[in-house]
Amino acid sequence: MIKIFQMGDLHLDSPFSGGDILRSENGRKRLRALFRRMMSFVRENGYDLVLIPGDLYDTGYLSEESAEMIKDEFASLPCHVVISPGNHDPYNKGSFYASASFSENVHIFSEEKPGNFVFEELGTVVYGYAFTSSSHRENPLEGFFADSDKIKILCAHSEVGVPLSSYAPMSYGDIEASGFDYAALAHIHKAPEVYSSSRLTAAYSGFAEGRGFDEIGAGSALSVSIFETGEKKEIKYERLSFSEYSFELLPINITDLQNDDDIATLIEKELDTRRYGANNSVRVLLEGLISVGFSPNLSYIRNRCASKVDYLEIKDNTLPTADSKALAHDPTLRGELYRTLEERLSSPDMRERSLAAMALRIGLTALDGGDLTVFLPREESDMEEAEG
Ligand SMILES: [Mn+2]
Fold first, then answer.
1. What's the rounded Cα separation, in Å, for the pair 320 and 293?
2. 199 CA to middle of ligand 1, Å?
3. In whole angstroms, what is the distance from residue 82 CA to residue 102 CA?
4. Ligand 1: distance of its center to the CA of 310 in Å?
């Protein structure tokens, strides 16, 4: 039996740009702490192999602190480490992988074509390849067959299942046809279901810890055990989480609420119920039908609730159609405006719906001689979306 720890898409030293400097620095500290927790876990739980299928760090520039930490942690492991550089941490001249001196247990793929590392004592061969720039347009497994009687593992950064992908396109069928028993994958942050057939198991570890609102909830790594009984290999895997911080979406229905304070109170209550606090960034999504005459003051509401969590964002996805019956039959210009927008107000396209809602609010406020400055753009999200 061999025991593998698989981790990918850590994106150490991510810029966390857009936020203030302190929050960005905290984000990078969190990722370093996460990496150290994972390595402690490996040391304490008898693993034979650590597989890192890419995007261990985020950009070509790696801080001295992170570089030293990575080397020291790897050197402290009682097992081998195999790295397949991805699109964020490609192997090329001057890269950390090419220039740093690692302990002898660290093995890094350096070419776009498949290579391998043989571990006799584990009866295992690990195959892989490297991104050498931010893309890899060829299918690295084209015409490749892993010819060995040992356990054959592929450690790869790839967007599997997307034929025209710029990120080492291949299919699960290709991996299977190349003769692998297990494929340790990274690149797709929202881990798809584990692929499993009679011959192959292939799994993405998923993002290690959320870095933005496109990485919701707990991050993950994988613990994989491969048992060999004669010709047959049995593969067991377990998803583990080492993240202590998370990004969360919180939809809140404010139908029937008529003022900002009631909304803030409801948000505070929901944050408490879910125990969101200093280790959470939360995006509240206000939903429901509210009166056309009422437009929630997002910055006021945010200011009232923000101290409850590390970072709070509020989006208004409500529709101003609580009083739509009256409007639909209104013979004046107000009714005409409503009827013109009616179809778009119930469009399945969220963007079209909210634009129509905004048009209605602005139009009705203008017709009523109201203050239009309340519609000036308020703060937008300052969290950058992370990419694969
Ligand atoms: Mn990637």
1. 8
2. 26
3. 12
4. 27
Alpha helices in 293-349 (DSSP H): 298-305, 324-328, 333-345
Q: Which tokens hold the place of 354?
A: 């909210």
The alpha carbon torsion through 329, 333, 339, 345 (nearest 10 deg) reads -120
Q: Tell how far the Cα of 159 is from the centroid of ligand 1, in angstroms.
A: 8
Cα(379) to ligand 1 centroid in Å equals 30
Distance CA(19)–CA(214), nearest Å, equals 16
Q: Which structural domains are found in the chain, ordered by start?
A: 2-240 (3.60.21.10), 248-375 (no CATH)
Find residue 256's DSSP bridge partners: none
Centroid of ligand 1 to alpha carbon of 306 (angstroms): 32
Q: What is the pLDDT of residues 104-156, one digit of tens each?
A: 999 999 999 999 999 999 999 999 999 999 999 999 999 999 999 999 999 99
| CA of residue 263 to ligand 1 center, whole Å | 39
CA proximity to 67, closest of 92, 44, 41, 35:
35
- Please give the Cα distance from 351 to 59 (Å, whole number): 32
22 has a pLDDT exceeding 90: no
What are phi and psi for residue 267, nearest 5 degrees? -60, -45
